[in-house]
């Protein structure tokens, strides 16, 4: 352990002994914050917390974003230590967000964050983790980096350790474009070309659903945000649930548990059924609990 890690560990032990910073969840006004602080954290607690004791575990969050879920896992579910990594730096907003939404003066020492280059290996940088989690991130990872990243994450885990991974929406599902905030037509991205889709997004001037507006929106402004989310759409890796499981197994994980959810907000267009299996078109979410073999 280097000096920085030792200091962080000491600060974490101090916090465990003398208590976490105070917070008031009655102050929450932001729906994005609320859905991560409650829903996402509760799902992680159910899946990962059902397999290991979060209160005594060291955890890695792959694709932590703004870190709200990690904050909730510490405050609401007693997680002991979470290291969040991401290719962006949205987590630098967390102290301000936690102040605005929870009245916190500081974020817990149990949290630490790191920016990485896409695909940069993490194994060997820190002692092995008890658990890893990843929420709405793996659909954004470049396809050729999926296997190396999953192998690297496996190498970051203790033997017998668990990795909980969630993706929603999956690409071929009704709103798998991640563009629903601007386009309510189900499976639209599979029926028109990119130019036509962009025209719909560009022309949209309605309100955005508050739980779909993240804290990056203010940085981009309305037009910039449209360009940002459309680029994200173009870069989606189009992974299906079967492909994800197959790559995870190839990376050396065992599947401890999985759940696939289906969503059919309107009858699937016949034309699409001629090109894609119904199951792929209706499967919008996967929860996957992986385990590094002992
Ligand atoms: C939709 S956001 C989800 C963030 C967070 N998990 C949440 O629930 O709010 C996807 C995140 O994955 C990150 N990401 C994309 N590719 C990545 C990669 N190769 N390595 C690490 N993070 C990545 C993005 O920067 C982004 O923060």
Q: Biggest sheet: strands side by side, in what order?
A: 3-2-1-4-5-7-6
CATH third-level topology of the largest domain: Rossmann fold
Give the H and E element order.
HHEHEHEEHEHHHEHHE
Mean pLDDT: 95
Q: According to CATH, what is the class of the largest domain? A: Alpha Beta
Organism: Comamonas odontotermitis
Pfam families: Methyltransf_23
InterPro entries: SAM-dependent_MTases_sf
Protein name: SAM-dependent methyltransferase
Topology:
Blueprint: H1 3-18, H2 31-47, E1 58-62, H3 68-77, E2 81-86, H4 94-102, E3 111-115, E4 129-135, H5 143-156, E5 157-167, H6 194-203, H7 217-235, H8 241-250, E6 254-262, H9 270-273, H10 278-282, E7 283-291
Parallel strand pairs: 1-2, 1-4, 2-3, 4-5
Antiparallel strand pairs: 5-7, 6-7
Helix pairs in contact: 2-3, 6-7
The protein binds S-adenosylmethionine.
Description:
The chain is α/β, with parallel strands linked by helices and 294 residues long. The chain has two domains: 3-171 and 241-291, Rossmann fold (3-Layer(aba) Sandwich); 188-235, no CATH class. It contains ten helices and seven strands. The protein has helices at residues 3-18, 31-47, 68-77, 94-102, 143-156, 194-203, 217-235, 241-250, 270-273, 278-282, and strands at 58-62, 81-86, 111-115, 129-135, 157-167, 254-262, 283-291. Strands 3-2-1-4-5-7-6 form a seven-stranded mixed β-sheet, with helices on both faces. α5 (143-156) links the parallel β4 and β5. α2 (31-47) packs across α3 (68-77) and α6 (194-203) runs antiparallel to α7. It is globular and about 60 Å long. The two termini are 24 Å apart. The mean pLDDT is 95. It binds S-adenosylmethionine. The site of S-adenosylmethionine has 18 residues, from α2.
């Amino acid at each position: 352990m280097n000096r920085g890690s030792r200091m962080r560990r000491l600060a974490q032990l101090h916090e465990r002994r003398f208590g976490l910073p105070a917070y008031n969840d009655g102050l929450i006004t932001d729906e994005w914050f609320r859905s991560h602080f409650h829903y996402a954290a509760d799902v992680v607690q159910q899946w990962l917390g059902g397999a290991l004791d979060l209160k005594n575990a060291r955890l890695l969050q792959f694709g932590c974003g703004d870190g709200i879920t990690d904050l909730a896992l510490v405050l609401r579910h007693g997680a002991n230590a979470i290291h969040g990594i991401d290719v962006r730096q949205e987590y630098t907003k967390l102290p301000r967000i936690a102040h605005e939404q929870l009245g916190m003066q500081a974020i817990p020492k149990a949290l630490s964050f790191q920016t990485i280059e896409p695909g940069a290996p993490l194994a060997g940088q820190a002692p092995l983790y008890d658990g890893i989690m990843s929420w709405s991130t793996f659909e954004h990872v470049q396809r050729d980096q999926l296997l190396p990243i999953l192998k690297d994450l496996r190498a970051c885990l203790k033997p017998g350790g668990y990795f909980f991974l969630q993706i929603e929406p999956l690409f071929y599902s009704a709103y798998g474009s991640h563009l629903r905030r601007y386009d309510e037509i189900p499976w639209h991205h599979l029926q028109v070309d990119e130019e036509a889709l962009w025209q719909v997004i560009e022309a949209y001037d309605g309100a955005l659903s508050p739980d779909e507006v993240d804290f990056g929106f203010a940085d981009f402004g309305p037009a910039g945000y449209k360009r940002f989310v459309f680029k994200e759409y173009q870069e989606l890796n189009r992974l299906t649930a079967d492909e994800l499981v197959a790559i995870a197994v190839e990376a050396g994980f065992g599947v401890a548990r999985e759940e696939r959810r289906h969503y059919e907000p309107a009858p699937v267009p016949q034309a699409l059924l001629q090109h894609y299996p119904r199951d792929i078109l209706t499967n919008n979410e996967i929860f996957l609990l992986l385990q590094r073999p002992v």
